[in-house]
Amino acid sequence: MANKEHISALVDGEIQDSALLEQLGNDRELSDTFGRYHFYGDALRNELPHHLQLDLSERVAAALADEPAIIAAPAPSAPRVEKAGVVRPLFGRVAPMLRHLGQFAVAASVSAAVIVGVQQYSQNDLQSPVLNTVPLSGGAAPVSLNYQFESPGRSNEQTLLEQQRRIQELLVDHELQQRLHQN
């Protein structure tokens, strides 16, 4: 039986074992491990696709199918009648409240993580123009009507239009900076 070290060595190209490749073709678990190791290698080499398709619906559906069905809720137990002068321990009264608070804390933590994740994900796609302080032309360059471009084949009119466009970009950036620093 192949272990994970052999699979890792196969993925890294350190060994070439036809028997191991045959086992990978026959065993679903080994095949999944082989695929995960290739995925890890791609991630380490920064060769992952730009948008990953992570479809968890099959796993969720399988987990729901394995979940036992609740036929009927259990009957509530009869309330305990305490004798006069008998004090229940504090833990017996606090435990149910702590359990509910714990469930609420877990739900709040998951909700906060989802919100932060969605904000971070959407922030990469849609940057707010107010907070976008990177120059639109891709880099800083001198802005002057006396500045001459070194590109042959450009007419003076094209050069003047390019300079006016860059000046306009700087004015827009200046306005955005003013809005940003007013708050």
Describe the structure.
With 183 residues, the protein is an all-alpha fold. Among the domains are: 1-51, no CATH class; 128-183. Helix content is 59%, strand content 0%. The chain has helices at residues 4-12, 18-26, 28-44, 57-66, 90-125, 156-182. Helix 1 (4-12) packs across helix 3 (28-44). The longest helix is centred in the middle third of the chain and has 36 residues, at 90-125. The chain is flat and about 90 Å long. The relative contact order is 0.04. The model has no long low-confidence stretch (mean pLDDT 75).
How are the elements arranged and paired?
Layout: H1 4-12, H2 18-26, H3 28-44, H4 57-66, H5 90-125, H6 156-182
Helix pairs in contact: 1-3, 2-3
**Shape category:** flat
Q: Oligomer, anyone?
A: single chain
Helix content: 55-70%
H/E series: HHHHHH
Radius of gyration: 32 Å
**Helix-strand category:** mainly alpha
Low-confidence stretches: none
Quick one: how many beta strands? Answer: 0
Number of helices: 6
Largest sheet: none
Quote the distance from N terminus to C terminus: 65 Å
Fraction in beta strands: under 5%
Q: What is the residue-averaged pLDDT?
A: 75
Subcellular location: Cell inner membrane; Cell membrane
Membrane topology: Single-pass membrane protein
InterPro entries: Anti-sigma-E_RseA-like, Anti-sigma_E_RseA_C, Anti-sigma_E_RseA_N, Anti-sigma_E_RseA_N_sf, RseA
GO molecular function, one term: sigma factor antagonist activity
Notable traits:
mainly alpha; 183 residues; single chain; flat
